[in-house]
Specification:
There is one protein chain. Strands 1-2-3-4-5-6-7-8 form an 8-stranded parallel barrel, surrounded by 7 helices. By secondary structure, it is an alpha/beta fold. It is built from 11 helices and 8 strands. The model has no long low-confidence stretch (mean pLDDT 96). The longest helix has 16 residues. Strand 3, helix 4 and strand 4 form a beta-alpha-beta unit. 50% of the residues lie in helices and 16% in strands. Helix 6 crosses helix 8. Bound molecules: erythose-4-phosphate (E4P). The site of erythose-4-phosphate (E4P) has 11 residues, from helix 7.
């Protein structure tokens, strides 16, 4: 399963790029606004450092405006994916952008029916928001299970991008259901790295090494052999 970060923070993205565990990034207007930076400058930097799709969301409400914005965003880099909202206008924009070869992600999806329509319109990705469904007393993961099954039944190639993830258990559940991508806040990805037994085990190894007075062998300069 591909791992995306749901953030527009460069400082949060960089360490995970260095670890080689990051496949892409999702942003939304709320996350962009949080950074308090010039939009173009910020997203250009993100597009440069992320080794995969960078999802940027349109803010127009009508299809014509979304298509215009989508073209401009896509022109910023080959790895840009244009996020359009799950509305009738959004689906029109997705269809038009897909015809131009621009990848789209239909966002704010809360039901398998919406996910089916997004795929039919030609979306490359669909984003069911599972955490917000859980918050409202529904079973968010059920939408993932149903969407994965529906796409399989009909050979639909749209990738299921599990969004609004709140904790590491959501990630495991999404992976077991066969979702293509999980996007999560940096603190969730951080928690996925950690396990208390890893920390306890590491401390014990280092303590035992130190207590025994062991030392690493001294490093010697390399001797270059000359051939005769
Ligand atoms: C996905 O693309 C959205 O940006 C995101 O997952 C929304 O998550 P939230 O419900 O935590 O705001």
């Amino acid at each position: 399963m591909k791992i995306f970060l749901d953030t527009a923070s460069i400082a949060s993205i960089k360490p995970f790029v260095d670890m080689g565990v990051l496949d892409g990034v999702t942003t939304n207007p709320t996350l962009i606004a949080k950074e308090n930076r010039d939009f173009l400058e910020l997203v250009t930097e993100i597009i440069k450092i992320v080794p995969g799709p960078v999802n940027l969301e349109v803010v127009s409400q009508l299809a014509d405006g979304m298509v215009r914005e989508g073209r401009d965003l896509a022109a910023l880099g080959a790895n840009v994916v244009v996020k359009c909202p799950m509305t009738g206008e959004g689906l029109v924009a997705v269809r038009r952008l897909a015809k131009e070869g621009i990848r789209t992600n239909v966002t704010l999806v809360f039901s398998p029916n919406q996910a089916l329509l997004a795929a039919k319109a030609g979306a490359s990705y669909v984003s069911p928001f599972i955490g917000r469904l859980d918050d409202a007393g529904h079973e968010g993961m059920k939408v993932i299970e149903d969407t994965v099954q529906i796409y399989k039944n009909y050979g639909l190639e749209t990738e299921v991008l599990v969004a609004s993830i709140r904790h590491p258990v959501h990630v495991v559940q999404a992976a077991k259901l066969g979702a293509h991508i999980a996007t999560m806040p940096p603190d969730v990805l951080d928690k996925m790295i950690k396990h208390p037994l890893t920390d306890i085990g590491l401390k014990r190894f280092i303590d035992d090494w130190t207590r025994a007075g062991l030392k690493l062998p001294e490093r010697r300069p390399l001797v270059v052999k000359t051939q005769h």
